[in-house]
Amino acid sequence: MKSKILMYLFIFSVLLLIFQYVNSKNIIDKYEKDIVTVKAKLAESEKAQKTLEEQNFELSYFDIDRNEDALSYFEAQGYDTSELIPAIIEGLYNMNDYEGDDHPIVPYVSTTSSKLLINKVRVMNHKWIVANFTDGNFWGEIFVTYSIDENNDLKYKLVEYFLYPTIN
Question: Nearest Cα to 116, choosing from 159, 132, 130?
């Protein structure tokens, strides 16, 4: 009887070991599959990130923050570019606060009940600005030059402009 109990215990132990081996193997296989999936997603994300970084670099090419020559121009004249560039942008945005129908720099009149407003400004270098404007119905863009006079006042000059045609 004792030998039968030992035999049953041995068989039970073997079955338990086989069960644990199969279960562990399945868990390890699942983890390996998950690792492969995560590595593929990570590689895809890194590729997408690199593509976005390249696009960002290309899009910011005409931006004063990346233009060392333009920044050096202002620094040589004694200006702090970290204060000057926001002041240049703010000067255009401040033109949105005007009385009447005529915007100080945008050469169009609003065709709606709202005023024409400058929405987005990009300072390209130490002389040029591109901005877009809208009255909520019509959109357009302006090309502006700017300079700083001897009294350190910003002067803006409209060079080119256009209004997008409406599509009916």
Answer: 132
Cα atoms in the Cβ-side hemisphere of radius 13 Å centred on 163: 15
Per-domain residue ranges for the chain?
1-59, 64-163
pTM of the model: 0.70
User: How many C-beta neighbours within 10 Å does residue 154 have?
Assistant: 15
20 by DSSP, 3-state: which? helix
As beta bridge partners, residue 155 has 147
DSSP assignment of 103-125 equals -SS---B-SSSSPPEEEEEEE-S
Residue-wise pLDDT tens digits, 59-107? 888 889 888 999 999 999 999 999 999 999 999 999 999 988 889 999 9
